[in-house]
């Protein structure tokens, strides 16, 4: 799974690009932590499952190993290439404009839905993609996710004269808000959970920031490194442990719902 732009990437605040190698180096924890929501999915042999925001296909592969048929959807060509190398039927598809009609027993998504800001369009597309009684299982950023990181970047935008909107282009709903959207679209929500998950960063805070928010820093041109250091220094007392380990302040929303 990938933290990525799976919606209308043409908008300036969504101009996020991905390198499969860089993602593997700086963000492999995304798929490693995805095992819990994969357990919620519990894929069964013979099922046809859409992996929405499949990224490099690591979790898609686990679904295949369970005996299901998987279609992966993403918009990063580099990550799609990595997924195809794993044998996944990975397709360039906008998550806000899913083209399927009652084709899947389940739709699964890990660490991608918060990049798709038109949540109602995503939910409607998921409902249409599912067979009646099909299930939707997802984990993504919930209310309060990376709040310290976003606050630090917004402070940097104010100090250095940047666009603060580039600090947080995500959709981080509360469980109640997202449940209401699902129910309004014709889903029965089976369970939700908002889970605090401080996440160790393998390449530190700079690696995380330059993997997930390069557009914010690139707006400063030759001052990019200066702004990056300022943000990192501001976050250090809050997100760096005494042993030197950096953490991201993740809050993850998990949801399992069924199409009525």
Describe the structure.
Helix 1 (20-27) packs antiparallel against helix 9 and helix 7 packs antiparallel against helix 11 (224-239). Strand 1, helix 4 and strand 2 (69-74) form a beta-alpha-beta unit. This protein is α/β, with parallel strands linked by helices. The chain has a domain at 12-146 and 170-202 and 249-259: Rossmann fold (3-Layer(aba) Sandwich), CATH 3.40.50. Strands 3-2-1-4-5-7-6 form a seven-stranded mixed sheet, with helices on both faces. It contains eleven helices and seven strands.
Average pLDDT score: 90
Elements, N to C (H/E): HHHEHEHEEHEHHEHHHE
How many distinct helices?
11
Oligomer: single chain
How can the largest sheet be summarized? 7 strands, mixed
Structural class: alpha/beta
Task: Please tell me how large the radius of gyration is.
Answer: 18 Å
CATH class of the domain at 12-146 and 170-202 and 249-259: Alpha Beta
The residue ranges in which pLDDT falls below 50 over 5 or more consecutive positions are: 1-14
CATH homologous superfamily name of the domain at 12-146 and 170-202 and 249-259? Vaccinia Virus protein VP39
Total strands: 7
Percent helix among the residues? 25-40%
- The CATH topology of the domain at 12-146 and 170-202 and 249-259 corresponds to Rossmann fold
Strand content: 15-25%
From the spread of the alpha carbons, the general shape counts as globular
CA(first)-CA(last) distance: 27 Å
Named at the architecture level, the CATH assignment of the domain at 12-146 and 170-202 and 249-259 is 3-Layer(aba) Sandwich
InterPro entries: Methyltransf_11, SAM-dependent_MTases_sf
Keywords: Methyltransferase, S-adenosyl-L-methionine, Transferase
GO molecular function: S-adenosylmethionine-dependent methyltransferase activity
Pfam families: Methyltransf_11
């Amino acid at each position: 799974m990938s933290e990525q732009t799976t919606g209308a990437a043409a908008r300036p605040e969504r101009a996020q690009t991905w390198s499969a190698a860089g993602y593997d180096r700086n963000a492999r924890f995304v798929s490693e932590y995805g095992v819990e929501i994969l357990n919620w999915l519990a894929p069964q042999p013979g099922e046809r499952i859409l992996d929405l925001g499949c990224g490099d296909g690591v979790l898609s592969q686990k679904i295949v190993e369970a005996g299901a048929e998987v279609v992966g959807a993403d918009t990063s060509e580099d990550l799609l290439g990595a997924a195809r190398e794993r044998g996944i039927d990975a397709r360039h598809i906008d998550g806000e404009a899913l083209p399927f009609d009652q084709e899947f027993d389940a739709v699964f998504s890990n660490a991608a839905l918060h990049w798709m800001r038109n949540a109602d369009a995503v939910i409607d597309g998921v409902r249409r993609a599912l067979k009646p009684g099909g299930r939707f299982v997802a984990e993504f950023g919930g209310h309060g996710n990376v709040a310290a990181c976003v606050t630090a970047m917004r402070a940097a935008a104010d100090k250095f004269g940047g666009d603060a909107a580039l600090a947080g282009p995500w959709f981080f709903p509360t469980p109640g808000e997202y449940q209401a959207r699902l129910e309004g679209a014709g889903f029965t929500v089976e369970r939700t959970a908002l889970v605090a998950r401080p996440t160790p960063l393998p390449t530190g805070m700079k690696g995380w920031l330059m993997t997930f928010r390069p557009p914010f820093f690139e707006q400063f041109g030759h001052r990019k490194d200066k702004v990056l250091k300022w943000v990192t220094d501001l976050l250090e007392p809050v997100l760096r442990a005494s042993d030197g380990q950096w953490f991201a302040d993740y809050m993850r929303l998990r949801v399992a719902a069924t199409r009525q």
